[in-house]
């Protein structure tokens, strides 16, 4: 709005260009001097490609000071030699736009396995410095192209999957208020789940181009209250959250916590998520896990991995799979084996990533071993490999491809094979 008002003023007064130029230059210097530790250390950043997001996203043109190198005074800007103070207010914004073709043979039985699609991402935030506190607001909004309404629903099984393709055009990915004072940080809202750490890029807003334990078990986002203490190399996080992807429909809440060591060259941590499951819903699913994560980085290469013990499945008996109306699992994770008796499993993945000036590449392999309940479809081990490659043609424009390959399941939905192949080819503009 301020820029719009200034633009109107400029049309009336050409001399105003000089004052605006000085204003922009001063803001740029203040921008470069802000202490980026005002933000949180909430797992992966907004785009999921590094370990820690700041309250202000780093653009390729700006190299901000780190937590160990806070604002150092006017000597940092010798070209101006102005007596600048640490900025009391700063903002940032950015985003992505992508178009791609996807062919997912795992869902061939639904009739929507191959399509062209477009998506957008908008990111922005504000930081206010006041009496030793850094008060911040961060948001990430997803723009999604919905599926058409004419979806194949000619059998009860296909009808039960219809909710999987009901996509909101505008989705709140993150939106939280934060406050930092020294080593203490608190956030309230919707943020990256403080469980584990991941170091791979995602090229879809629904994050399904991820390792199995990330796409099927660990939620990428949680809504609630987070407390964090990060003295030195340590990061301790504890959050009370809804435990589900959106707003809760009952009073049941989850505890999510991680204790770890996080450094630019290495990281190691242990996490837990636990929820009692008592609420007013007719049916509720288990979503509990305990896990470990590790990372080591050398130059352009990053080796990382995660492993979890997982509890999943419906909490109460009596719900048939074809009666599920809130979205079904492709991997039969929504069975019930008794009242408040979870199914259990173990999963892991190892990820090798390369980040160069022209190429971003990733190799990933993981497995998930479900507990046997006597149902072959559920009892099958899932072995998933992922290959991602992105060619950066300019600082802002890239083309990319994703190949997901996992073992086939001979007798899946409609008693037809579930072919474990998934391919994406697309282009993305980042600003």
Number of helices: 5
- Major sheet size, sense and barrel closure: 16 strands, antiparallel, barrel
Oligomeric status: single chain
From the N-terminal CA to the C-terminal CA, the straight-line distance is: 20 Å
Query: Shape, please?
Result: globular
With strands numbered from the N-terminus, the spatial order across the biggest sheet is: 1-2-3-4-5-6-7-8-9-10-11-12-13-14-15-16
Our estimate of the beta-strand percent is 35-45%
Give an account of the 3D structure.
The chain is mainly beta. It contains 5 helices and 16 strands. A 16-stranded antiparallel β-barrel has the order 1-2-3-4-5-6-7-8-9-10-11-12-13-14-15-16. A hairpin with a 4-residue loop joins β6 and β7. The chain is globular, with a radius of gyration of 23 Å.
Give a short summary of the structure.
This protein has 431 residues and is mainly β. The protein contains 5 helices and 16 strands. It has a 16-stranded antiparallel barrel.
């Amino acid at each position: 709005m301020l820029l719009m008002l200034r633009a109107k003023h400029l049309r009336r007064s050409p001399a105003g260009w000089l004052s605006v130029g000085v204003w922009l230059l001063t803001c740029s210097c203040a921008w470069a001097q802000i202490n980026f530790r005002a933000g949180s250390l909430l797992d992966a950043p907004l785009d999921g490609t590094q370990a820690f997001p700041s309250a202000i996203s780093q653009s390729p043109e700006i190299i901000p000071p780190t937590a160990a190198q806070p604002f150092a005074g006017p000597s940092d800007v010798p070209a101006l030699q102005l007596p600048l103070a640490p900025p009391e207010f700063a903002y940032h914004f950015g985003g992505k736009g992508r178009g791609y073709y996807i062919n997912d043979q795992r869902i061939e039985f639904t009739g929507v396995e191959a399509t062209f699609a477009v998506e957008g991402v908008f990111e922005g935030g504000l930081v206010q410095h006041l009496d030793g506190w850094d008060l911040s607001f961060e948001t990430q909004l997803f723009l999604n192209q919905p599926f058409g309404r004419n979806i194949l629903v000619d059998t009860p099984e296909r009808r039960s999957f219809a909710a999987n393709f009901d996509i909101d055009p505008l989705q709140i990915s993150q939106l939280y208020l934060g406050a930092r004072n020294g080593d203490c940080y608190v956030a309230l809202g919707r943020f990256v789940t403080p469980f584990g750490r991941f170091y791979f890029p995602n090229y879809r807003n629904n994050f399904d181009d991820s390792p199995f334990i990330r796409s099927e078990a660990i939620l990428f986002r949680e809504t609630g209250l987070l407390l964090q203490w990060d003295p030195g190399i340590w990061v301790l996080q504890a959050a009370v959250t809804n435990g589900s992807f959106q707003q809760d429909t009952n009073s049941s809440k989850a505890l999510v916590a991680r204790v770890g060591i996080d450094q630019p060259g290495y990281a190691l941590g242990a996490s837990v998520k636990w929820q009692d499951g008592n609420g007013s819903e007719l049916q509720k699913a288990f979503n509990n896990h305990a896990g470990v994560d590790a990372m080591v980085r050398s130059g352009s290469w990053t080796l990382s991995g995660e492993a979890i013990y997982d509890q999943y499945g419906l909490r109460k008996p009596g719900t048939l799979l074809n009666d599920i109306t809130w979205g079904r699992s492709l991997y039969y994770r929504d069975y019930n084996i008794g009242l408040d008796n979870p199914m259990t499993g173990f999963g892991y993945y190892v990820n090798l990533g390369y980040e160069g000036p022209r190429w971003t590449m990733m190799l990933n392999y993981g497995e998930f071993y479900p507990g046997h309940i006597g149902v072959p479809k559920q009892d099958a081990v899932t072995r998933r490999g992922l290959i991602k490659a992105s060619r950066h043609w300019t600082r802002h424009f890239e083309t990319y491809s994703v190949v997901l390959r996992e073992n086939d399941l001979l007798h899946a939905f409609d008693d037809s094979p579930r072919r474990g192949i998934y391919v994406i080819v697309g282009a993305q503009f980042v600003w």
